[in-house]
Amino acid sequence: SSTKDAHDEL
Amino acid sequence: MNIFRLAGDLSHLLAIILLLIKIWKTRSCAGISGKSQILFAIVYVSRYLDLVTTFISVYNTFMKLVFISTSVATIYLMYVKFKATYDHNHDSFRIEFLLVPCFLLALLINNAFTPLEILWTFSIYLEAVAILPQLFLVSKTGEAESITSHYLFALGSYRALYLLNWIYRYYAEGHYDLIAIFAGAIQTILYCDFFYLYITKVLKGKKLQLPA
């Protein structure tokens, strides 16, 4: 999951 | 970046350009919901606050700035420059009925309880339903100009293409975000009725007109 990632989508 | 994501972003950009062309060329914002445009501006501003905290890529920063500035420009054209042509009698959707539930849901269901993350989640939920005032306006007037139909088709296609992007990313990178996927699915479903009318009428050269 992307919980810890930055949101790289628009 | 994969082909679905790029196609989605370009479709999104195309939608915004089509809308600006429609307003500029016809010198009129008739048939366009100012309420939906205000909601989209709120979506972009609350989602792209990370412009000042996180750098992802030149592409990412550029597109975010384009989305924020074009949505502000659209609102300016509708509420200032071509105010006289704005159809506010038909644009009667109450946006607080979308804003408040989306914000409450973002407080309850989010990836992290931090201000930026809650605003990001709020923007994702709000985007899913932001088109409702526009669809409500079309259903009230019973018709849409063809360029407005093209705008709506491009705008609806964008999240549908993102759904393909998320399927691809799940298999290729193991990346997924349930909040975005869930909201994106709702968003796409809301356009289905319009997609059907667009394909069966507008693409055959007819005006988008709802049965009386």
Automatic annotation (TrEMBL), chain B:
GO cellular component: a single term: endoplasmic reticulum membrane
Membrane topology: Multi-pass membrane protein
Record-annotated membrane-spanning stretches: 62-80, 92-113, 119-139, 151-172, 178-199
A single MF term (Gene Ontology): ER retention sequence binding
Family annotation (InterPro entries): ER_ret_rcpt
Keyword Protein transport attached: yes
Keyword Calcium found: no
Xref: Pfam families: ER_lumen_recept
Single GO BP term: protein retention in ER lumen
Family in the record: Belongs to the ERD2 family.
Protein name: ER lumen protein-retaining receptor
